[in-house]
Amino acid sequence: MKLIGPFKQIITLANLPLRGKLSDEQIDIITDGGIVVNHGEIQEVGNFETLKSENQNIETETIEGEQIVLPGFVDAHTHICFGGNRANDFAMRNAGKTYLEIAESGGGIWSSVQHTRNASEAELLKTLVERINFLVSLGITTIEIKSGYGLDVENELKMLRIIKKAQDQTKAKLVPTCLSAHLKPRDFEGSNTEYLNYILTEILPKVKEEGLAQRVDIFIEKSAFQPEESKDFLVKTKDLGFDITVHADQFTPGSSRIAVEVGAKSADHLEATIDEDIEFLAQSDTVATALPGASLGLGEKFTPARKLLDAGAIVAIASDWNPGSAPMGNLITQASILATFEKLTTAEVLAGMTFRAAYALGLEDIGKLEKGKKADFVTFKTDNFQNVLYNQGSLNAEHVYIGGTQIH
Ligand code: NIG
Ligand code: FE
Fold first, then answer.
1. Which residue's C-alpha comes closest to atom 8 of ligand 1?
2. Strand, coil or helix: what is 283?
3. Does the domain at residues 2-71+368-406 carry the CATH identifier 3.40.50.1970?
4. DSSP three-state, residue 353
5. Which residue range or ranges hold the Amidohydrolase-related domain (predicted)?
6. What DSSP designation does 152 have?
């Protein structure tokens, strides 16, 4: 057992509800606080001096200078296992080239598939761990990571096995997701339905057998998989025992409705979601995940997070870090910018990057600083937690604790 502190402010988020809008008055601030950690879990959060006198002889880890502490952030949507680079896509897009022109000149998702297939396992693992370490340095302690640049049995399993190996090289919790339904690969001979069937019969049983992922994702979009075939796929996926998440309504509306209908844990993107479907999401337990990094990468509008929160939805914010549409990877910067454009309160943004994102991943033991939760938290050298979002990502995390141990 040890006591960590004193912290100028501890923002526990403990009392905030899972869904709907939040005001900043709802944020409880513990001033001059401390955190008691026992076996990697939070035992108590409270006033530092009180905790110290109540727990005589307790080992104390003293925090120097003025620091504030927040729950470790959760990035619930990334594609950070990939080979190659798509800087040329970015440049072409900004030079006015269309999606088709970029794809024809060798860009797009298919180009990342080829680079990822051609990369050695050692190279993929090395770059993946570098990206994980970058995210951890921002204060992110749980990271979802998708496959989806392999797109055949061999290469999808290769990606998921690498993600599994990466877990041995980081203390951050990694949550793998099988995104074999990212796109029908150009070298697959058959229809979309046949490819989805191939995933169901050839890929997912092996994923299950090796324990490589418990979640399955699909990109429902005109250029990827169509609504009906996707719904059928998701129902069957669920029957196999997987949790479901969907790339929904990125450019065209309609697929968030499918996500809700099949009981997906989350519907992510939602840049094009129509008002009626915002209501539908808000009535459900499917988390609406905003991906401002994709809006910034593509120059598209932001997810209507304000409307979703006002309607009562569970809104999370994730980075979507990937080589194509969201190359930045800085969730704090992206969430701050989303807040500015969508008029989100600090409470809504912090909730969206912590316990609401954790809910999307089905994780109940993280995201708030309260008794029984895992002792994952991030500190910043400042006297006021508002400075974290105010500085739009340029106030660096000072320390990152995972399971009560300082790892950064
Ligand atoms: O979440 N929308 C589809 N998939 C990714 C993009 C992946 C890529 O372009 O490589 C996304 O934005
Ligand atoms: Fe994505």
1. 324
2. coil
3. no
4. coil
5. 68-405
6. S
